[in-house]
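retry 2 of 3: previous attempt timed out while embedding flavin mononucleotide. Reduced batch size to 1 and resubmitted. Inputs unchanged:
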Amino acid sequence: MPTLLHLDSSPTGDHSVSRALTAEFVKNWKAANPGGTVITRDLPTTPLSPVDGQWIGAAYTPAENRTAEQKQALALSDTLTSELLSADEYVLGVPMWNFGVPGTFKLWIDQIARVGVTFAYVDGKPQGLLNGKKARFFIATGGEYSGASPFAAYNFVEPYLRSVFGFLGVVDVAFQTAGGAAALNYGADRAAFLAPQLAAIQAIFATA
Ligand SMILES: Cc1cc2nc3c(=O)[nH]c(=O)nc-3n(C[C@H](O)[C@H](O)[C@H](O)COP(=O)(O)O)c2cc1C
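retry 2 succeeded.
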């Protein structure tokens, strides 16, 4: 039975656009996979901290030689990487913040990019270890960054996600971006704004 990792990184709860989209995906995924398992990872309530010298030393120490302190330093990373390893597919909600990903999301990336766990060096070359996984990203942006926009080059979210997940071996990736979400702060109707986004998600399952 398939396992889905559902990850959200927006801290805005019921106001979040990306959360509304991942929730719709998960609802449809559950209906399509009644025996499936969903792992939920909520980054704003995860005690993420920047990797420090001890973390790096521990990560590069062979597992059998790690001290109790080093094991403790990697404990959260172990949990987060095991979620990625045990899931078959991932759905991730990612707001654009200052043209990139939110800080919590970057902290998560730093915890899950682990040598010997999610990538390895083979003949001196990095090789991803999350092979065969699928990732679907729901991105919410205040502005518009689609191809024709003069701000397209400011969008570092999708290229970054594509690169870092590709590095980890996840090359089967899909992106759906809800652009122009800033309109919601100026009186635009939330249901009307979300409707085409939710319809696009339902269409994924209608054709599956
Ligand atoms: C701290 C912060 C920084 C933001 N930076 C940008 C930005 O650089 N470009 C943009 O288009 N929107 C930006 N926004 C708007 C968000 O991308 C937008 O509100 C989006 O809906 C957030 O996703 P969410 O609704 O899932 O939280 C920013 C919002 C916040 C709170």
